[in-house]
Design goal:
- By secondary structure, the chain is mostly helical.
- It has one domain.
- It has 3 helices and no strands.
- It is elongated, with a radius of gyration of 27 Å.
Length: 104
């Protein structure tokens, strides 16, 4: 009976199969794009080298159970500390200072 319905409604059968095929190709395309972007970002970070240190007041992880109260009293890095890092670290080739200003 199901086979008879498929043979009778050829257009509906074709459109259903065509829709499923397009859906599968879209999912594969999105997954391939996301994987490519992730690999590209990882390669960009790896190209900077494995001897990079980031010093910040806040940690980079977050989430609903993020203990912000542990980090709120930490001091912000100062510019003179950057100079100290350059002078005291013999393997430092480059160092940069990054600041964000918020105007309310």
């Amino acid at each position: 009976m199901a086979l008879q319905e498929l043979l009778k409604n050829k257009l509906r059968t074709f459109l259903s199969l065509f829709g499923v095929t397009i859906g599968i190709f879209c999912i594969i395309g999105v997954l391939a794009t996301v994987n490519s972007l992730q690999r590209n970002i990882q390669n960009e970070i790896k190209s900077m080298g494995n001897n990079i240190i980031f010093i910040d007041k806040w940690v980079w992880s977050g989430g609903p159970d993020y203990p912000w109260w542990k980090f709120v009293n930490r001091p912000y890095p100062k510019f003179y500390e950057l100079k100290e890092i350059k002078e005291r670290s013999p393997s430092t080739q480059y160092a940069a200072f990054f600041m964000i200003f918020q105007i309310i």
